[in-house]
Amino acid sequence: MNNKTSFTTYVLWTVFIALLLVLWPHTAWAFRQYEPAESTVLYNGFTWADLISYVVAFAFEASIAVLVHKLSKRIEDTPKRLKSWHEKLAYQYINPISFGLVIATIVSGLANLAHAVQFGVPLKIFTAWGISSDVYSFAFGGILPLVSLTFANVLSNVVDDEEAPNPELTTANETIRNLHKQLRDSEARVKQSEERARLAEERFNAIGDLVKMLFGEDKRQRIVAAHQQWPELPGSAIAIITGSSGAYVSETLKEFQLQNN
């Protein structure tokens, strides 16, 4: 059972386990009929054969509980791709889990039917209405284990019904997710705009500094600025840009290089 198991599911499992506990001693009695009448006494009249019978009966009743749980999960997890009822029926009930559950249920059913026939006494309602005692035995003994076959489907339906998504809640959650996404996208666009503005401002400031240096009063500063901005330009081009002679440009660049080496 997962974390989403409902209260109703717990109640159903409690009822189901209680039913198996009621059937357990009846099934043990049936198995005891096939053990030796004389057996080692373990405690206060309880014999080794009695212990074996109860252990075997417990194995069958417990296997019914386990197989019902496994089958209910299989029914719950039926693939959505199965559309037709016969495909769903085949997937849910024609499998080793169902086969094992049917075998265990038949054994438990026969054991409890035998117990009901062995110890059942006619009730007045049956004798007064002329109803066969076989019907009584079957109704109060053999039919009890058959109830377990319905629990697998009931438990899976409880999970489906109680955990089914609320359409209105689903729509509301989807709307909230979309609004959150739009808000995140808007924040991202604002950050991108701020980043672009910052870069543009930095470029503008850098260009402003370059313009100041290229058009400043100091010729040497203009020559160095042009060389740093366009290192591939020949001296003659720098001379034109800065309004200097080629010889002065050459001399200035040599001094600049010597200072930086």
Structure keywords:
single chain; 261 residues; mainly alpha; Arc Repressor Mutant, subunit A; 2 domains; two-stranded antiparallel ribbon; 10 helices; 2 strands
Element layout with pairings:
Blueprint: H1 7-32, E1 41-43, E2 46-47, H2 48-76, H3 85-93, H4 96-119, H5 124-128, H6 133-162, H7 167-214, H8 219-229, H9 235-242, H10 246-260
Antiparallel strand pairs: 1-2
Uncertain spans: 159-164
Main sheet makeup = 2 strands, antiparallel
Described by the principal axes of the CA atoms, the overall outline is: rod-shaped
What topology, given as strand order, has the largest sheet? Answer: 1-2
Tally of individual helices: 10
Terminal CA distance reads 78 Å
Overall pLDDT level? 76
Structural class: mainly alpha
Describe the structure.
This protein is mainly α. It has two domains: 158 residues, no CATH class; 47 residues, Arc Repressor Mutant, subunit A (Orthogonal Bundle), CATH 1.10.10. The chain has ten helices and two strands. Helix 9 packs across helix 10. It is rod-shaped and about 135 Å long. The two termini are 78 Å apart.
